[in-house]
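Extended Data, panel c. Modelled sequence:
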Amino acid sequence: MLQQPKGEAETNMKQLQDVYDGIMSPAPAVVSDAPKPEGDAATPDGSAQ
């Protein structure tokens, strides 16, 4: 619940709640059409020590 603090400038609580909800909502899942690499192509070869 959001409340207007006493002595503070007037704040648009609806706008503040919308901003908060936008920040706190989970990000949408990213869907990619690109094929994923198969095998060990994306992993390091282990030669670096």
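The chain has a mean pLDDT of 74. This feature is highlighted in the accompanying rendering.
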